[in-house]
Amino acid sequence: MPAIEHSPLGREVAYPQRFDAGLLYPIPRAQGRAALGIAGAALPFVGNDRWHAYELSWLDARGKPQVATATFEVPADSPNLIESKSFKLYLNSCNAARFPGADALRMQVEADLSAAAGAPVSMAFGLPAMCAGEGDSIDALEIDIDRYGPPDASQLAADAADDVAETLASALLKSNCPVTGQPDWADLAIAYSGPRIDRAGLLRYLVSFRDHAEFHEQCVERIFIDLMARCRPRSLSVQARYTRRGGLDINPWRATPGEPAPAANRSERQ
């Protein structure tokens, strides 16, 4: 992996004129997980990072442009995450490349992404269906908020005397890209069973990410770890559906082992 100062991150780069897998910039997940007290290969969660690509194009064997959408899944236990700008530049480099067919493109992209992530990455043409939202939104709560960063887990609390199983939702999660400083917006769904989570405290906690700079995947892992530590649920599933930027959106999901993956779908803001 090139040193970050020699990477395409956070600086202007030329539009790629040829297909180039070297544009992909992997970032070791261990860097962000160390700050959360996660060390080694034994993870406290399962999950994946599902990407949606809206601007995929390539040339067929005769040079005729082809267009498509695609869905990618990167396992959460892969050693590396794939930085979003580098992912976009890589997909843009397909625009000038000839492939004998769509399957040839898919196999090449899967191989390149798997090499960057350090684990098998899947690609399928097309996008999942839209969803109207899930769970009980906590966004209408009438509360005062004055903390916008860093994330403040002390806001989280749960009532051990009230055992529930519910899904809570918020569209107010915002953080910033640690490379460009650009805002990242997401719809968040938290499904859990166990002590009832205080909704006002949860909303204050989520808003405390507002000025925080961290990659999408790391934000979701931080939320998962903080909820487990402060609220002690028996089961927990956290999924963020980030809004599209540069023709890509990402949907990190983390859950306690044994929890089924949520249905693959997109939010209205994607």
Structural description of this entry:
The protein is α+β, with helices and mostly antiparallel strands and 270 residues long. It folds into 2 domains: 4-125, 2-Layer Sandwich (GTP Cyclohydrolase I, domain 2); 136-255, GTP Cyclohydrolase I, domain 2 (2-Layer Sandwich). Helix content is 21%, strand content 32%. The chain has 5 helices and 10 strands, in the order βαβββααββββααββ. It has helices at 29-34, 84-93, 102-117, 199-207, 216-231, and strands at 26-28, 46-59, 65-75, 80-82, 122-125, 136-137, 158-176, 183-197, 235-242, 248-255. The strands form 2 sheets. Strands 5-3-2-10-9-8-7-6 form an 8-stranded mixed sheet. Strand 7 and strand 8 form a beta hairpin. The chain is elongated and about 65 Å long. The two termini are 31 Å apart. The model has no long low-confidence stretch (mean pLDDT 94).
Task: Describe what is shown at a glance.
With 270 residues, the chain is an alpha+beta fold. The protein has five helices and ten strands, in the order βαβββααββββααββ.
How would you summarize the topology of this molecule?
Blueprint: E1 26-28, H1 29-34, E2 46-59, E3 65-75, E4 80-82, H2 84-93, H3 102-117, E5 122-125, E6 136-137, E7 158-176, E8 183-197, H4 199-207, H5 216-231, E9 235-242, E10 248-255
Parallel strand pairs: 6-7
Antiparallel strand pairs: 1-4, 2-3, 2-10, 3-5, 7-8, 8-9, 9-10
